[in-house]
């Protein structure tokens, strides 16, 4: 029983990390119709910014302030990328892909040039390295932290999308961008806001991912982005709730299959799940079926 509880909560923690990355990615594609391959760079920026600030701050509020700094850096980079690189290319999808892929590669190279290619030890708070007894299982506190933050982020995103003016514009733009533009609403501001929100969420994922893995490295964002894309496709493009469902499914599947099967079997099963969803419901579990 203890093993099952541990695997379940560890899988939910991994799924929470995937959700933090995928939710912003899904919003960006749903509204702006941009496959942002530079999203992993936003995560790496948040991780390294938190690592840099965490090494210079101390006391009980040192780490939370460092995380806020990482989130702010991720949001700033996300908004800047939209304004400078993506905005001139909205009607040129091929160039969008090339620019975001190139930016991702350049960002990894820049991080390697600044801090080297080797992983850096992460300044995690002591309490995140301890365990909490849950139903007979000793669960690492960093997993519980990820789960709690993901729940709060999901609730906050849903409240923002349903009860604020910009949230309603984003939801309407995901459903029918041409109609929103015809009503005289400046969708470009919503695009920048969505990129900033996506960058902030990726920065938060990078900050907490450092706690999860115990280190940061330049290629960490790119490796996590692969599973984030899988989560977005399974959940349905533009659906935050769908991304949450898919992230839970992917995280649990990876943990249980990797434990009871051979090493790496969980990743294969995740790809198989993606293939099944694409065959049975191409729009994703929470997406609209094609008509």
Automatic annotation (TrEMBL):
It comes from the Bacteria. One of its GO terms (molecular function) is transmembrane transporter activity. One of its GO terms (cellular component) is plasma membrane. InterPro entries: ABC_transp_permease (IPR001851), BCAA_transport_permease (IPR052157). GO terms for biological process: amino acid transport. It is a multi-pass membrane protein. The chain crosses the membrane at residues 6-27, 34-53, 65-85, 97-115, 144-161, 191-213, 225-253, 259-280. It holds the Pfam family BPD_transp_2. Keywords: Amino-acid transport, Cell membrane, Membrane, Transmembrane, Transmembrane helix, Transport. Its main location: membrane. It is found in: Cell membrane. Belongs to the binding-protein-dependent transport system permease family. LivHM subfamily. This is Branched-chain amino acid ABC transporter permease. It comes from Rugosimonospora africana. The lineage of its organism: Bacteria, Bacillati, Actinomycetota, Actinomycetes, Micromonosporales.
């Amino acid at each position: 029983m203890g093993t099952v509880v541990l695997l379940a909560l560890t899988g939910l923690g991994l799924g929470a990390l995937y959700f933090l990355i995928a939710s912003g990615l899904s919003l960006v594609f749903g509204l702006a119709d941009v496959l942002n391959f530079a999203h992993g760079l936003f995560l790496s920026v948040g991780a390294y910014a938190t690592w840099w600030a965490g090494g210079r701050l101390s006391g009980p509020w040192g780490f939370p302030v460092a995380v806020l700094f990482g989130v702010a850096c991720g949001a700033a980079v996300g908004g800047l990328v939209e304004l400078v690189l993506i905005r001139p290319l909205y009607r040129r999808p091929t160039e969008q892909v090339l620019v975001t892929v190139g930016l991702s590669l350049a960002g990894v190279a820049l991080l390697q040039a600044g801090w080297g290619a080797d992983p850096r030890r992460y300044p995690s708070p002591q309490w995140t390295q301890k365990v909490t007894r849950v139903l007979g299982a000793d669960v690492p506190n960093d997993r519980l932290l990820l789960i709690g933050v993901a729940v709060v982020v999901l609730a906050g995103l849903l409240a923002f999308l349903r009860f604020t003016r910009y949230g309603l514009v984003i939801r309407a733009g995901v459903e029918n961008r041409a109609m929103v533009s015809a009503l005289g609403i400046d969708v470009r501001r919503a695009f920048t806001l969505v990129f900033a929100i996506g960058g902030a969420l990726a920065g938060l994922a990078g900050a907490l991912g450092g706690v999860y893995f115990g280190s940061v490295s330049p290629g960490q964002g790119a490796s996590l982005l692969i599973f984030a894309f899988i989560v977005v496709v399974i959940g349905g493009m533009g659906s935050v709730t769908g991304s949450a469902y898919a992230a839970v499914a992917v995280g649990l599947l990876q943990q249980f299959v990797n434990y009871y099967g051979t090493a790496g079997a969980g990743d294969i099963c995740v790809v198989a799940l993606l293939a099944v969803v694409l065959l049975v419901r191409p729009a994703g579990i929470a997406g609209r079926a094609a008509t």
